[in-house]
Specification:
heterodimer; A: 513 residues; alpha/beta; Elongation Factor Tu (Ef-tu), domain 3; Rossmann fold; Lysin; 3 domains; eight-stranded mixed beta sheet; six-stranded antiparallel β-barrel; B: alpha+beta; Glutaredoxin; four-stranded mixed beta sheet
Chain lengths: 513, 121
Amino acid sequence: MKSEEIIKKLEKKLSGFESNPKQQNIGVVEKITDNIVVASGLSKALMGEEVLFDDGTPGLILNLDEDSVSIVLLGKSTKLTEGDTVKTTGKILTVMAHEDLLGRVINPVGVPLDGKPAVKKGKAMPLEKIAAGVIARQPVDTPLKTGIKAIDSLFPIGRGQRELIIGDRGLGKTAIAIDSIINQKTNNDQAKKGISAGKLKKVICIYVAIGQKQSTVAQVVEKLKETGALDYTIIVAASAADQVSLQYLAPYAGVAIAEYFMEKGEDVLIVYDDLTKHAWAYRQISLVLKRPAGREAYPGDVFYLHSRLLERAVRLNKEFGGGSITALPVIETQADDISAYIPTNVISITDGQIFLKSDLFNSGIRPAIDVGLSVSRVGGAAQTGAMKAVSGRIKLELAQYKELAVFAQFGSELDAATLAQLERGKRLTEVLKQPQYQPLPEAFEILSIWAITNGYADDVEPSDILKFEKEYHAYVKTHDKKLIETLSNGQKPTEDVTKALKKITEAFKKTFS
Amino acid sequence: MTRKQILQLVCASYTKEKLDDKKVTKIASLLKRKDLKSYVRALKLQEKKSTVNIALPQAAVYNSSKRIFFDLFPGKSITVSEDKLLLLGGKIIADDMVYDFSLKNRLEDFLMDLENQYDEE
């Protein structure tokens, strides 16, 4: 490039440049304890404002006192000492959101963790924002398929819903969330080709890891990459090794990025894994800030901490773009106790919960969903006609089975009808089992549930149900592709479809040994 | 001691808007260790509030514009320092506010603006 061209380019850029005498509010570091800095001065500072220290470390104002402010550090700083200056920036905390973030792993302030260059373009989205109001919202009416039979049939999730995944450690909470992300691939591929059932939009996924082990985050990234789900997923990670401030901000950064896509009319699925650790992080910050401690030493506003986050999950109406954010918060319980402080808080905020129980997990029922305690308060309205038609019976039969199974334990003689119900219940429980990372398309979920609830597997041993299901799916796939397509469109099965289902199932039964 | 009492002591430490050594020594000798710490901190803050620091590329410039600064900051003690890196203009630090009119600041702003434009491209 010639020197003249360089000068011209500079002049062009200079034309829009405005510089006023800089006014800055400064403070002096008085005390540093556990990543919390107390600084004097900063009389013009605002609550939640971003500040910058001498060494370039950013901070966030969390407490405003009469002649000092408390700042939480947002980066690692070993050079910071008493007497250093800190200046206000006049900005609230934001994260850059852009399509280029898809497939990336970042921390809550947008710093890449995957070794690739930082995404600097895009829109600066505020981490703290008031959730969309009543006028902008519309009821949940579109399904978000997880690919997990037990969930899609019994506790369906709609776009814009907040469904809590709750249970002890190691019961597969993250697995359900990851499966839901992986399952969006089919939907996204169909949406791309324009053949999605019910003209469902593609779903962008955001996985927020809060206080997780770095190895766990690496495993999740690897699994998403392996299944091709990372292409439409953004991972916001604040691992256990990161500052507690980043763990506190991670879910807000995640939802801020989600809002960027929602504003463009897209549907977003966001997983907060997990909010128990988020509450721990906030408790730690609050205790160091010397805020009054309440129950279990959590600060008084721990409910608001999660309610303001989860309220940002929304389904906007068409006037506001029609986008949505579906939230799957995860809560870890201790000894299956869902009546603890944080679990009850989050249960009351969300639109339902999927409760995983350790005794079910240990008896081989995976996903270990407790059908009795799990619920989806709004998802039923979003269920497709086809799924609704077949899942109505499964709920009833499972409930009857659970009740009868308790009586059967006493070993008294049972009549034929009760025995038949118990046998059916066993098969239903078996068919709801599903291996990890193998979400099923809705048509196949319908096939499995229909066959079991209509008694086509009553003569199959419960231990052979998974084999029956696998072979049945393969048979239908090769012999009646049209039926799969019909079931995929989500319409309530007509008489002809039911006839076709009966016909092919009977034909398969003859071949199954 | 309460914060209000400490602030009253700080006010009492001044004679004709100037810190009185004798009064400070007297008060300090009567205070407990914990209160003394708060008193010193409050005193420092008060001193900071009543002082204006002016940084100029050439200290000599101050003499010609002394009057302006006295009018701008009445009743405050003004200290002047030389900072050649400012190139032109000046920098005023009054309490916890910094007003930067220097050429250095303007050039830095320009550099940042160029960097931001480059990032966006």
